[in-house]
TrEMBL record:
Keywords: DNA-binding, Transcription, Transcription regulation. Residues 152-217 form the HTH luxR-type domain. It comes from Stappia sediminis. GO terms for biological process: regulation of DNA-templated transcription. It holds the Pfam family GerE. The keyword Endoplasmic reticulum does not apply. PROSITE patterns: HTH_LUXR_2. GO terms for molecular function: DNA binding. This is HTH luxR-type domain-containing protein. InterPro entries: Sig_transdc_resp-reg_C-effctor, Tscrpt_reg_LuxR_C, WH-like_DNA-bd_sf.
Length: 217
């Protein structure tokens, strides 16, 4: 006598999905180790997702789980990143599609506001990853985030956004080659930016730069 068939399990509600479960599956068969980029964004309390051109999730950091559950319009459905509100989804999809046609290292940033749903606004950045047809999507809940050290760097020392991004990465254990690769630029271009950054911040090396960023944090 055979037992009764188990009823098919219902799809887990969005709120109960764990990014760690998805992460384990998504790491299999990856073409590049994205761990340094994801861990860096965890350190700065930013959600980070690696997606393909269709917004299918490849990998995500731990902080992404917090953002997905904190009442923003960003959500994960069938392993695709999307927005509940139509306007936000259109903005996200259009930006991703435009970056597909651009060169490695190209990036766009924008704010998704959701007046019709009343959900919390999100600051988004999307960057094409070097050597892959994949994208790094970072997101910050603007209701939780005061002006951070990078914004203060730009304001106080008159850094461009690119210079602030490089300064942030140079204050990590990443090598110059790894930083250049993550930004889609050559090491010579990186060193040119580094010279300008050191002059603006009046520091002599990466140790001084790191100490300055810690004081600003």
């Amino acid at each position: 006598m055979t037992g009764a068939k188990e009823a098919p399990s219902a799809e887990k509600p969005f709120e109960s999905m764990k990014m760690t479960d998805i992460d384990v599956k998504s790491r299999q068969g990856g073409t590049q180790d994205h761990a340094p980029l994801l861990e860096l964004n965890d350190r700065y309390e930013r959600a980070a997702f690696v997606v393909d051109g269709d917004a299918h999730l490849i990998e995500a950091n731990e902080y992404a789980d917090r953002l997905l559950k904190c009442g923003t319009d960003l959500r994960l459905r069938d392993n695709f990143i999307e927005f509940a509100e139509k306007n936000g989804q259109s903005r996200f999809s259009d930006t991703l599609r435009q970056l597909c046609a651009k060169s490695t290292g190209s990036q766009e940033e924008f704010i998704i506001e959701c007046p019709s749903t009343g959900r919390r606004p999100i600051h988004m950045e999307i960057q094409k990853i070097s050597g892959e047809d994949r994208f790094l999507v970072t997101a910050v809940d603007l209701n939780e985030t005061a002006i951070g050290p990078m914004a203060r760097l730009q304001h106080v020392f008159d850094l461009t956004k690119r210079e602030a991004d490089i300064a942030r990465l140079m204050a990590t254990p990443l090598t110059e080659a790894e930083i250049a690769n993550s930004l889609g630029i050559s090491t010579n271009t990186l060193r040119s930016h580094r010279k300008t950054i050191y002059a603006k911040l009046n520091v002599a090396n990466r140790v001084d730069l790191t100490l300055l960023l810690r004081r600003l944090a």
